[in-house]
Amino acid sequence: MRFGTPNGSTAAQVAVRPPNRNLCTTEQRPLTAHLDQSQKPGQRRDNERTREAYRALERLLAAGRVRAISVSNFMPHHLDALMESATVTPAVNQVELHPYFSQPDVQAADAARGILTQAWSPIGGITFYPGYGEERKSVLEDGTIQAIAKQHGKSPAQVMLRRHGQRGRSAIPKSTNPNRIAENFAVFDFELTGDELAAIDGLDTGRRGGPDPDTVDPVSFGLEIPEP
Ligand SMILES: NC(=O)c1ccc[n+]([C@@H]2O[C@H](COP(=O)([O-])OP(=O)(O)OC[C@H]3O[C@@H](n4cnc5c(N)ncnc54)[C@H](OP(=O)(O)O)[C@@H]3O)[C@@H](O)[C@H]2O)c1
């Protein structure tokens, strides 16, 4: 569950009510603060609103209302800014991460702070979802990934998910198809070699498929975020 704007503090408190009911989000996934996305281009996202949203999560953690708290789409400079005021290091940083966009700088910044990097679009959904640019190439159709998959008798998605695990990352693939959900769990009976991991790492283009956390604003999603 995510909170960042416009009033992350209030939203976070509402989300964990009533106190006597278990929320699967707080049991299974950390409560997640996003950067303030109500800002215009050029304005900082790691601002007081973001800090207040995270402070609300810290209070919920201290009160025993959630088991873990996390952040999403925080780049190294956002983590630096957050940790100037935070008292709890986020357990997880959930960021875009697939073979075409591996964000080694974010992974290093997370690791240096003991934060688990969690991949969204872990099998590259953002490289083939409609509406993000027709010139994109689906990572599911990448020749290197397909050759490695064939070598192991696995699917490209399974190779990508296995890579996340072997590289020490968490991954949250999304599927609405029961067969593909089962396929995405069946990644514990093979191992990628060092050369295969290096070959996949080498596919990184350095270009994100999704929005840039420093410039995304409500207009990007056609949203109107009312002032509190
Ligand atoms: N924190 C953030 O800012 C942020 C941003 C974007 C997404 N996310 C989260 O990240 C999660 C996953 O990311 P995502 O949905 O962008 O991308 P993804 O999980 O990499 O890809 C999902 C797409 O791949 C298909 N798929 C799933 N398993 C497959 C398989 N084994 N073989 C072939 N195709 C397969 C799905 O279709 P079917 O459903 O038809 O199987 C869907 O079209 C979502 O739960 C989302 O909420 C977070």
Can you give a write-up of this model?
This protein has 228 residues and is an alpha/beta fold. It contains nine helices and six strands. It has helices at 8-15, 24-28, 48-62, 76-83, 104-113, 143-152, 156-166, 178-185, 194-201; strands at 2-3, 31-34, 69-72, 92-96, 116-120, 170-171. Strands 1-2-3-4-5-6 form a six-stranded parallel β-sheet. The longest helix has 15 residues, at 48-62. Mean pLDDT is 87; it is low at 1-7 and 18-27.
Q: How are the SSEs placed, and which strands pair?
A:
Elements lengths: L1 E2 L4 H8 L8 H5 L2 E4 L13 H15 L6 E4 L3 H8 L8 E5 L7 H10 L2 E5 L22 H10 L3 H11 L3 E2 L6 H8 L8 H8 L27
Parallel strand pairs: 1-2, 2-3, 3-4, 4-5, 5-6
NADP nicotinamide-adenine-dinucleotide phosphate (NAP) binds next to helix 8.
Keywords: NADP, Oxidoreductase
Pfam families: Aldo_ket_red
InterPro entries: AKR, Aldo/ket_reductase_CS, NAD(P)_OxRdtase_dom_sf, NADP_OxRdtase_dom
What is the percentage of strand-forming residues?
Answer: 5-15%
Shape: globular
Count, helices:
9
Major sheet attributes: 6 strands, parallel
Structural class: alpha/beta
Total beta-strand segments: 6
Rg calc: 18 Å
Element order, helices and strands? Answer: EHHEHEHEHEHHEHH
Oligomeric state of this protein: single chain
State the end-to-end distance.
20 Å
**Helix amount, in percent?**
25-40%
Distinct ligands: NADP nicotinamide-adenine-dinucleotide phosphate
Average pLDDT number:
87
Poorly predicted runs: 1-7, 18-27
Domain NADP-dependent oxidoreductase: 50-204
Protein name: Aldo/keto reductase
InterPro entries: AKR (IPR020471), Aldo/ket_reductase_CS (IPR018170), NAD(P)_OxRdtase_dom_sf (IPR036812), NADP_OxRdtase_dom (IPR023210)
Pfam families: Aldo_ket_red
